[in-house]
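Entry:
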Amino acid sequence: MQPFPRITVEVPVLGVGSGPADYEGLAQRVDSLRRVGGLHMTLLHIGILEDFSRDVTEWTKGITSADAAARETVRWLRSLPVLGAFSGTSDRLIVLGGGRIAGLEVDVPQQVHDFQVSLVEGLRVLLDGLLVDNVDDFILSSPALGFRYPHWVPHVAVGRPKSRSRGPVGIPPMTVAFGESRVRNGRFLPAVD
């Protein structure tokens, strides 16, 4: 059986540094360095739609059905505005995911922060419409959403850290180019009327 895909709002990485050698140089500090073509920055993680819908139903004690939650979430995702392409800079690697992931921390333009905040605000409005009470508590406790911290750190996961050090590691400054925002795995969302 095919696993359900994770749904995120993200921006794809179009390029890192001035050429392939800049990015490949990270292999000195990162194991299993990911291909540039598959890199992205997550702006908002929704998770597996079925899991998210079930979280809403459980939180509302059945007042909002999983079908209704899924339908309204798909409508919301399809109505999101698009953030235009932009560039950021990175000069350090950070450790994420309890030490399992190395990421480029990226300094991004203010409009990217503003867009990410608008996504979270839109999620709050969606959840309020789905009759979720204590929306912020739901966001921080929903297993599907997977929020660990209320503060968003712009980053691109690039592999596994070689070092057990938890602190940031300085790297030569490099530009990171991003494309327009998109709903990852949006083609797998169900049709809604």
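The CA atoms of residues 105 and 153 lie 7 Å apart.
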